[in-house]
Amino acid sequence: MNKRVHLGVFFPVFILLGLFSCSDVAERADPQFKQAFDEQSAVYSDVLRKDAFTGSDLPPLYDQLPHAQLRSGDVILRLMAGASSILTSFSSLGGYSHVGVILREGDSLMVADCQPHNAAVMGEHCIKKHRLYDWVQDFQLKGDVTPVLSVMIMRTTHSFSEEALTAAVNAMLYGNVRFDSQFALNNDLPEQQNLYCSEFVYVLFQSVLKRDDWVYFADPITNKLIEHVLILEKQNKYPEFCRMLHVIEERFHVKMRGVKDLIAPSVFESSSAFRPIFFARHPDLASSSYLPLMKMYAYLQRAVIVLRSLHGLPFRSDVEAEMAYAGLPTEQKQMIRKVIAGLAANGPDGKFASNELVSGLLSAYAGSEATFAMVGKAIAKMERPQGHGRGED
Predict the structure, then answer these.
(1) Rounded to two decimals, what is the model's pTM?
(2) pLDDT single digits (tens) 208-217
(3) At the topology level of CATH, where does 29-381 sit?
(4) 220 closest CA partner among 338, 98, 97, 93
């Protein structure tokens, strides 16, 4: 009896001590990290809150965007509903299936992009400018409506000439660019470029930044995902997910196995060369069957933001304090520790490069059974799509 009284009196004290200890650790976080994390968290507030994406009292997606703040050269990403778009985003464990570049033309805002639907005849020139209003609208085809689930706008942290980028876009509007369904970087011809959506944006920024250290390739993530899918299929796990994957491969004649130098749309969100400007989502997302998939994106994004915020800090930084400040769950802390342990082996005096960190983290998740468990449950809750979206790359 006395022992029970003794524990009953002091157990709350142990809890308080644990809370104070955690708070003390968070206080040690580097000021540079805190500033970077807080700035990004403000943009991702709808993504990072405990019950992400709840509430539906939002205006139409276009009306949410900060029109006056947008500039030529801002990168805009979107995710549409539909199996092909969802699987495109999942193939890099990112949250987006398509990407374009914003152009400000007087009071008008346009988006230039590369996609097969831009061609007057499928298989022909596929670079086009759209009104921003149209680019974020729900897409209607033969009575089916495919909503734009979410949009993210990123801005490069490197200086560049907006005039040069606009000129590069305008030159490509009248070029000979075919959509690259092989998703390769080395298959351009003297008289014809073969590009896909994110390769188009990559080519534009290569032309104005004159550097190639701003992007990482998503192929380690994608290849590991594909390898794991094949294993799961043999074990007859997550059959609906595997079925959807084969439908997309058959419909678009895409074989993603062994892909090399893949630039996924999500790379622009995760790259250290860009910072988030604005996130917007469909007003009805909270009641959509796609909500579980978006919550998976939200779960991964908190860890990604932590790694982006570590960029430039020395390996000797107190990462435990940074993770405590960000409020990461235990499982994500363990993942990040593994990734950092591999990089820190290169020397204690090095500095974190977030491209390596993010790629390493997502590669680890790509080989995790827990990832497929999450997406398997999410897809099981989805209403069976009537179509497969617009087939965005």
Answers:
(1) 0.89
(2) 988 777 788 9
(3) endopeptidase fold (from Nostoc punctiforme) (3.90.1720)
(4) 93
